[in-house]
What we know:
The chain contains 24 helices and four strands. By secondary structure, the chain is mainly α. Helix 1 crosses helix 8 (151-201) and helix 8 (151-201) crosses helix 20 (442-464). The longest helix is centred in the first third of the chain and has 51 residues, at 151-201. It has a two-stranded antiparallel ribbon with strand order 1-3. The chain has a two-stranded antiparallel ribbon with strand order 2-4.
Amino acid sequence: MDQFTLNLLFVGASFALYIGIAVWARAGSTSEFYAAGRGVHPVTNGMATAADWMSAASFISMAGLIAFTGYDNSSFLMGWTGGYVLLALLLAPYLRKFGKFTVSEFIGDRFYSSTARMVAVICLLVASITYVIGQMQGVGIAFGRFLEIDAFWGLLIGACVVFAYAVFGGMKGVTYTQVAQYCVLITAYTIPAVFISLQLTGTPIPALGLFGEHTTSGEPLLTKLNQIVTDLGFAEYTAAHGSTINMVLFTLSLMIGTAGLPHVIMRFFTVPKVSDARWSAGWTLVFIALLYLTAPAVGAMARLNISELMWPNGTNAEAVSLEQIETDPEYAWMATWQKTGLLDWEDKNGDGLIQYYNDQNADLQARAAENGWEGNELTNFNRDILVLANPEIASLPGWVIGLVAAGGLAAALSTAAGLLLAISSAVSHDLLKGQFTPNMSEKAELMAARVSMAAAIVVAVLLGLNPPGFAAQTVALAFGLAAASIFPALMMGIFSTRINNAGAVAGMLAGLVVTLLYIFLHKGWFFIPDTNSFTDDNPLLGPIKSTSFGAIGAAVNFAVAYFVSSMTKETPQHIKDLVESVRVPRGAGGAVAGH
């Protein structure tokens, strides 16, 4: 059976499972559509949240960014994992205790203001749509490769599939679909990693193999990788090279952005009790850790495999020949990925070889001139293809490649569905029913939710055609927007009775606007190419890149909220009582001095 047929079988079988579950668990009421009837078990919810969370950015893009940058991009792992600790301790149980369907509803009630609710809806829509762009990007890449078509058509096909099961199932359908998707994606991620770790280090656990010895050379794997990449003029893999300030801000932005993402917080509204919200967060961390402990090994081992494929006789010998790329089965994956437009090469000096090296490195110029090299000839290697191409690069069996196809699509589609639910609930429940038509029937509300979800898919596809970066970088921008706008409002809403409605509104708007402006200045206005004034290589504020600015936006939000609250009316007593009742368990008495 050829690889294309195998891919179709794996992807088709997984999709039949997802759509079958969505139909079986379709939502019949608004409670089931928004919160799955609040009847989801914590372990089930933890698995669904992990699938919701581990998007195309985690499955498809993160290991690629780590592979081609090394240590500096480990901040993705630290920020995203640390954010879940924040969410479990500081937000999830309190928001579940409040008992609403959406984040915007909590903000509107806590800050006793329909304006605050509307501003929260705007913040949610901006962050969620930016996030969906990254997911649709991943969907396009995955479908493009495994159907062997251009990524543009892959994007359109993926959008239709998301529409099919997210629109009809609602939260109830999405929850159980995401449990299945988690099982598919974690299996698809770890099996190739185990194979490759065994090949390179003889160790079946990739996280341990990363620090093991290379089977052929006998030297530590990371030492060998450092040697190869520095020989080719790239930065040392295990050393820090970027600004420490930017790295700290980026990690913080991802952490607090995680704790402010509406589609993740919504998952904690689906469990029966407040204590279940904490358990859900704990189980989610366990399920996420299975992938995140493997990702650094996947990135490092893939970078080593690629470098050795491009220089099969060592970095001091000749590079791979064009003839070998075109005829050797070991290189067949390159021709397949070339069809997607995400991988390409060019024999610039006509010597029949493809030299892969860092042509921007001044120290390599003498060697390049001596050998007649005229620049890096691996002209395009999109970072987002690495995990999907990994089994082919390592010459793994066809069924593993098919499994990874299904896993990559599961990761992208599960998060896209969760985000679209957050968007649709914001529009139908908070905007239409909450503001404009409070007497809307349940049937009309469900229809409005589905129409708004369809509209969000169209917007995401249009913006996904020209994304502002690789999938994980686009997602990092969404985290920055959530960090700057939603997270401070939630934190102040739960832990401070002093912040009033005027302060909350001013803070959210200030955080959102300043962060959005900084992103647009670096990524282009509304992400339109060539409309930017700065780049992340040469940022406006010293070393601070657009993906790191969310932490500063959050600080602006907190500062403005406290300043405006101190200059305006105090929070009403009944709201203070509400905050205390949410934060303090019922029946808790005062502290008693011990004897």
